[in-house]
Amino acid sequence: MAADTAHDLTSEAALRGVYATGPGDTSLAKVCDHVHPLYRPYIEAAPFAVLATRGPNGLDTSPRGDGPGFVVVADDKTLLLPDRRGNQRIDSLRNVVHDPHVALLFLIPGVGEALRVNGSARISASPALCASLAVDGKAPASVLVIRVASVFFQCARAVKRSSLWDAAAQIGRDALPSPGLILQTLSESRIDGAAYDAALQARQAATLY
Questions:
Q1: Reduced to 3 states, what is the DSSP secondary structure of residue 102?
Q2: What is the mean pLDDT of each run of 10 residues along the chain (209 residues)?
Q3: What residues contact residue 114 under an 8 Å CB cut-off, 6+ apart?
Q4: What is the CA radius of gyration of the chain?
Q5: What are the two backbone dihedrals, phi and then psi, of residue 161, each rounded to the nearest 5 degrees?
Q6: Is 153 exposed, middle or buried (0-12, 13-18, 19+ CB in 10 A)?
Q7: pLDDT computed for residue 67 by the predictor
Q8: What are phi and psi of 95, to 5 degrees?
Q9: What string of DSSP letters covers 55-77?
Q10: Reading across the β-sheet that carries 114-124, which strands appear in turn?
Q11: What SS3 state is found at 159?
Q12: Most CB atoms closer than 10 Å: which of 9, 33, 130, 151?
């Protein structure tokens, strides 16, 4: 069925033929061009966000997380996102070098509504700025300085349908292939998967910042 292209929606007019009612007032009135005082608490309470970027090889999304408020509201048009220790792929940062447009989706455990932010970013390696965002005495390598273009909340339907915050919906980690197994398989056994898995938790705990 997925191979059938006869019913593809390839224009905005075709989309509106299916989504005929259009957005209601509540879908439009919630949009701000800045961090409204009512939206600021969402950002300050969020320990997790998904960063979307676009580069020469297409789109990318990257999970970002830390203590609540890890994305700092510098002012009502500026957010600061520290780049904590990671895998050195720097996919998002390389994308921003090519295209400054970014988007953030903030999630707060126990809260159904998500917060969406769209804007543009630059990458700062200012020693003073990085030092101001240090955790456990360790400064981020760089900081995304995000200029806010729009902010709005997303209703809770997706979170409710997914039972995202329902403890009963959680599954055991061993129900899915482990990182070590994936690495060993895709590297054709160049990487020792069992050794990778055995050291993973301690390594991550020691290298969070």
A1: strand
A2: 95 95 94 98 98 96 97 98 94 97 98 98 98 96 98 97 96 97 98 97 93
A3: 105, 106, 107, 153, 154, 158, 159
A4: 20
A5: -65, -35
A6: middle
A7: 96
A8: -65, -45
A9: ETTEEEEEEEE-STT-SEEEETT
A10: 58-65, 48-55, 101-107, 114-124, 142-154, 78-83, 72-75
A11: helix
A12: 151
Place of tokens 């398989």: 185
Beta bridge partners of 139: none
Question: Are residues 96 and 62 in contact, defined by beta-carbon separation less than 8 angstroms?
Answer: no
Q: Which amino acid is at 32?
A: C
The pLDDT score that the predictor gives to residue 164 is: 97
Beta-ladder partners of 151? 32, 117
Side chain identity at residue 194, one-letter code: A
Q: Residues in the chain, how many? A: 209
CB 102 within 8 A of CB 153: no
CA distances from 55 to 69, 91, 93, 122, 124 (A): 27, 9, 9, 14, 18
pLDDT value at residue 127: 98
Q: Rounded CA gap, 47 and 172, in Å?
A: 22
Strand boundaries in the chain, DSSP class E: 48-55, 58-65, 72-75, 78-83, 101-107, 114-124, 142-154
Whole-number Å distance between alpha carbons of 168 and 27: 31
For the record, the structure tokens of 172 come out as 């055991």
